[in-house]
Amino acid sequence: MSSAQLYDTIGATYTVTRRTEPRIAARTWAALGDARTVLNVGAGTGSYEPPGRDVIAVEPSALMRAQRPAGAAPCVAATAESLPFEDQSFDAAMAFSTVHHWQDPIAGLREMRRVARRVVVFTFDTSDPGWLRRFWLTRDYLPEAADLLVGRPSLTEQARAIGARMEPVLIPWDCVDGFFEAYWRRPEAYLDENVRRGISVWARVGPDAEQKAVRSLRNDLASGRWAERNRDLVDLDAAELGLRLLTA
To answer: Rounded to two decimals, what is the model's pTM?
Structure first.
């Protein structure tokens, strides 16, 4: 399934649960430096498009493009791997939580490098062999998530392809953007179908794995087992779960 097809499938409730998290947005926008012209690749509904700059968006999914609000940046139907722009057309190119959907991440990143003088990418790191155990949701309930990354280039390889440096991005406990790891201290949220529908991982693992995980989590929340296993999370204000900002 291509990223456009995936988001045409899951995108219907996207704007309800996927909103701009201001603390992560601030990090991303700061990384853009003084760029005036910005290309937003895999832009979705435009949540993280920086204000006060001249932005052009690229988004392959028609459903996602249709949900962009009035006044959002102009949006081109295209993919990261084949950006319809001249070399060095932009001060910066950004990609937020989208690289894992691209058919060829290395090619897409190199295209961003081609069309812009600066590249900023928000993504996640699964280079560490123990990454599946980093987050209780994949460790205890959804190990099938590992299958989605088979054959994908590591984050180190991606960073090397564009000469990027990597910095960790902590997830605040009350993160308002409902991406996969956002509810690490609010496990009940994953029982909400609307929340899950806005997260591509659930659609990609399939309904059997999804229902098994939800059933098991619901039982563990009711019995107190989840709280017992994860008592160290209660006092954390932010968690390091592998999210990274690449800047080149």
So the answer is: 0.88
Eight-state DSSP code of residue 27: H
Domains and CATH numbers, the chain: 3-247 (3.40.50.150)
- Tokens 């959804």 locate to 142
Evaluate whether 156 touches 242 at the Cβ level (below 8 Å): no
Could you tell me which residue, 221 or 13, shows the higher pLDDT?
221
**Which of 58, 67, 11, 18 lies closest to 178 in space, CA to CA?**
18
The pLDDT, as a whole number, for residue 5 is: 52
> What's the average model confidence in pLDDT over 149-173?
93
Structural contact between residues 64 and 40, judged by C-beta atoms closer than 8 angstroms: no
Distance CA 45, CA 57 (A): 10
Q: Where are the alpha helices (DSSP H) in the chain?
A: 3-10, 14-17, 22-31, 62-66, 105-115, 136, 155-162, 193-197, 200-205, 207-223, 225-229
